[in-house]
Amino acid sequence: MELQQNPNLLWFIVIYGLIMVGIGIFMSKKVAGSEDFVLAGKSLGPFVLMGTLLATWTGSGSISGGETSMAFSYGILPSLMMMLPTLVGIIILYVVAPKIRAYGKFTVSGILEAKYGRTSRNIASVIIILAYVGIVSYQMKGFGFILNLTTGMSVQTGTIIGAAMIIFLAMIGGLRSVSQTDAISGFLMVGGLIITVPTIIAVAGGWSEVVANVPESHMSSTGGLTTIQMIGYLLPSLFLLLGDQNMYQRLASSKGDKSAKRAQLGWLIAMLVISPSISLIAFASRSLFPNIDPGMALMATTVAMPMAIGGILLAAAASFIITTGNSYLLSAATNLTYDLYGKYVNKDASDRKLLSMTRIFIAALGIFSYLLISYFPTVLSVQMYAYTVYGAGLTPAVLAVFFWKRVNAVGGVSSMVAGVVATLTWEIILQKPFEVNSVVVAVPVAVIVLIVATLLTTNNYQTRSVTSNA
Question: 26: left (phi > 0), else alpha (psi -120 to 50), else beta?
Answer without folding.
Answer: alpha
